[in-house]
Design a protein that fits this description.
Blueprint: E1 3-7, H1 13-26, H2 34-43, E2 51-57, E3 60-69, E4 78-85, H3 94-108, E5 113-119, H4 122-130, E6 134-145, E7 161-165, H5 174-186, H6 198-206, E8 217-221, E9 224-233, E10 238-246, H7 255-269, E11 274-280, H8 284-293, E12 296-307
Parallel strand pairs: 4-5, 10-11
Antiparallel strand pairs: 1-2, 2-3, 3-4, 5-12, 6-11, 6-12, 7-8, 8-9, 9-10
Helix pairs in contact: 1-2
């Protein structure tokens, strides 16, 4: 059986459905829908040269790859390629062909260092190392059951702090962009990111099909957002934390706990049954916050890197 690797066709709904299906089977802790797959392809920043590849065997999509250039990093020549194969379709060469195709495309765009998230499993790590990748930092996936689980009791905001939802910023989300950019710049990672393009943020983040503005929760002081948690939902009872953060001048006051707890209570009331989040293994303060909520670590992934050329 011949493996064929090609670009995802945005006009073919079956491509997006197959891509999303493989991603959910390979990484069940990440929310993915056909609409979110197409959104990333059609709305990512042009300078990212974002691409989605599929591996096909006899008309069935058995593997996927996402690749991009780290265009908003102060360090040039960096990019990413994340490859996932259907767990029951491994061993056919789909992963190797996807990775080689992604690397060739990134190299043609001037990328010299490729980063890739790899499940912390012996077979996956061996695959990465056979292809010349070296292990670096790691991150956890965490899960919290909302159907019958116990959340910390709701608490009111401290004096001077007001709680709002993302929907309250629908007319002017720029203050949330500014807070998101500050928090993103401080997030642990191999590739620094300094978001500055508000129009691109509106397309990619604010209009993301999984973003649930009713459950996204914001702490406001003197009319300005100072802490937030962005909530994603997939319409099937799954809730994911896209980002939680606090402005530098307001950290250490428990505001991250406040907004996330409020959002989780709202999510449970809205019928969500599972909540997922992720943390860099070195981000001990946020890991402690999530364990306080009752999240359990359910998987680990490792960030691998390879120098091209």
């Amino acid at each position: 059986m011949t493996v064929i690797v090609r670009d995802l066709r945005p006009e073919a709904r079956a491509d997006a459905e197959g891509f999303s299906r493989v991603r959910r089977l390979a990484v069940p802790f990440m929310l993915s829908t056909p609409d979110s797959v197409l959104h990333h392809l059609l709305n990512s920043h042009l300078d990212a040269h974002f691409g989605q590849l599929v591996a096909e065997v006899d008309g069935e999509i058995v593997g996927t790859a996402q690749l991009s250039v780290a265009h908003d990093s102060p360090e040039p020549g960096r990019g990413s390629a994340n490859v996932y194969v259907h767990p029951e379709r491994t061993g056919r060469g789909a992963g190797s062909l996807l990775l080689r195709t992604a690397e060739e495309r990134l190299s043609s765009l001037g990328v010299r260092t490729v980063f890739s998230w790899v499940p912390d499993e012996p077979g996956d790590r061996a695959f990465a190392e056979r292809h010349g990748y070296r292990a670096g930092r790691s991150a956890y996936f965490l899960r919290l059951g909302l159907d019958g689980g116990t959340l910390p009791p709701l608490a009111g905001p401290p004096p001077g702090v007001e709680l709002r939802t993302g929907a309250d910023f629908a007319d002017d989300p720029r203050p949330l962009f500014e807070l998101d950019a500050e928090v993103t710049a401080d997030e642990p990672g191999d590739v620094a990111s300094e978001p500055s393009d508000y129009a691109a943020w509106l397309k990619d983040v604010w209009r993301h099909p999984l973003l649930d503005l009713r459950l996204t929760t914001v702490a406001v002081v003197d009319g300005r957002p100072v802490a937030f948690t962005a909530a994603h939902t997939d319409g099937e009872g799954r809730y994911g934390t896209a980002m939680t953060g606090t402005a530098r001048g307001h950290r250490g006051r428990g505001l991250a706990k406040l907004v996330k707890n409020t959002s989780l209570h709202r999510a449970r009331a809205a019928g969500c049954t599972e909540a997922f989040t992720g943390n860099d293994t070195g981000n001990e303060p946020m890991i402690a916050v999530n364990q306080w909520f009752g999240y359990d670590i359910c998987a680990t992934e490792v960030r691998y890197a390879r120098e091209l050329g």
